Amino acid sequence: MQRDKAIRFSRVKEEAGKRTGTFRLLDYGCGSGEGTVQLFNHLSEVKDELEIDGCDVSEELLRMAREDTGLGLPIHFFSLKEERPAEGRYDAIFISHVLHWLEDPVRVVGELKSYLKPDGFIFGVESTISDRLYPVDLFIRLYGAKGFPTFEELQRWFGENNMKLNYDPVWFSFKATQV
């Protein structure tokens, strides 16, 4: 449900439909690829020329993505341990609940920005800390995450990379554009 909200909030389908040529999207932190397939299905409704890549650090999740989830679809899954995304390649990058796991989110947002075309954008889902998420925040810290950021932290991570952040605090959807 949150992915659907992020797709609507970012207007990625509208962006894909109005751009000429191939629309390229990277699902950064794609996991088992189920969300990547969902992105493909949404975007293929409005765009015939479509290339979607999914990347992750988990070899096991990528194996599942290649063998199960992505069957029959032209989605390229790759390991961030072996390959880096190409600079300036993507029209859009999707990330879902990735940033709060990272040691240096500002650096990674900068890397993600470098993978974008000049008019590209980053969109996705990232929960910000709130009273209703506090128990979940404590739980994910037990598994090594830094914990959910505050809205101000999230805004800073993108702002320090010259990106403007629009955020929906109800569904935790965001879209960051280059300034």
Task: Provide structural commentary.
There is one protein chain. The longest helix has 11 residues, at 34-44. The chain has a seven-stranded mixed beta sheet with strand order 3-2-1-4-5-7-6, with helices on both faces. It is 37% helix and 26% strand. The chain is globular. The protein has 179 residues and is of the alpha/beta class. The chain is built from seven helices and seven strands. The protein has a single domain (2-178), classed as Vaccinia Virus protein VP39 (Rossmann fold, 3-Layer(aba) Sandwich). The protein has helices at residues 2-10, 12-18, 34-44, 59-69, 105-114, 134-142, 151-159; strands at residues 23-28, 50-56, 75-79, 90-96, 116-125, 163-168, 173-178.
Give a quick precis of the structure.
The protein is of the alpha/beta class and 179 residues long. Helices cover 37% and strands 26% of the residues. The radius of gyration is 16 Å and the shape is globular.
Output the keywords.
globular; Rossmann fold; 179 residues; 7 helices; single chain; alpha/beta; seven-stranded mixed sheet
Distance N terminus to C terminus?
29 Å
Helix content: 25-40%
Number of strands: 7
* CATH level 1 class label: Alpha Beta
Could you please say which CATH topology applies here?
A: Rossmann fold
What would CATH call the architecture?
3-Layer(aba) Sandwich
The helix/strand series, from N terminus to C terminus, equals HHEHEHEEHEHHEE
CATH superfamily: Vaccinia Virus protein VP39
Number of helices: 7
Calculate Rg over CA atoms: 16 Å
